[in-house]
Amino acid sequence: MENRVVLTACIAEAEPLRYTPAGLPALTLRLEHESQQTEAGHPREVRAAMKAIAFGAMAERLARQNIGSLWTFHGFLANPRNGKTAVLHIQDIQQN
């Protein structure tokens, strides 16, 4: 089975860089996406906001980026232990 996400979005919010109990850097973000997609043969304006998280060197790299900057995020979806909403776990980024 695959669980891969590629999303072009801007960084809408970023919490301060923190460290896990094991000492791993972690960063929680809110991403916002806007685009036009085709659904059932008709154009549709799409807006989405999503929580995302990054760990290690990726967290440190994202912590240095500007709010509002546009990126293509690569990662996977997972539910947090106590959460019901999927979170994007960022594994790679490319600036647009």
Please explain how this structure is put together.
This protein has 96 residues and is mainly β. The protein has one domain (5-95): OB fold (Dihydrolipoamide Acetyltransferase, E2P) (Beta Barrel). Helix content is 8%, strand content 61%. It has 1 helix and 6 strands. It has a 5-stranded mixed β-barrel with strand order 1-3-4-6-5. The radius of gyration is 14 Å and the shape is globular. InterPro entries: NA-bd_OB-fold (IPR012340), Primosome_PriB/ssb (IPR000424), Prisomal_replication_PriB (IPR023646). This is Replication restart protein PriB. Belongs to the PriB family. Keywords: DNA replication, DNA-binding, Primosome. Pfam families: SSB_1 (PF22657).
Please give the largest β-sheet: 5 strands, mixed, barrel
| CATH topology grouping | OB fold (Dihydrolipoamide Acetyltransferase, E2P)
CATH class division = Mainly Beta
In percent, how much strand structure appears in the residues? Answer: over 45%
Q: Which consecutive residue ranges, at least 5 long each, have pLDDT under 50?
A: none
Gyration radius over CA: 14 Å
Strand order of the largest sheet: 1-3-4-6-5
List the helices and strands in order.
EEEEHEE
CATH superfamily: Nucleic acid-binding proteins
Can you give the helix content as a percent range? under 10%
Tally of individual domains: 1
Distance between the termini: 29 Å
Strand tally: 6
Overall pLDDT confidence: 96
Protein name: Replication restart protein PriB
Keywords: DNA replication, DNA-binding, Primosome
Family: Belongs to the PriB family.
InterPro entries: NA-bd_OB-fold, Primosome_PriB/ssb, Prisomal_replication_PriB
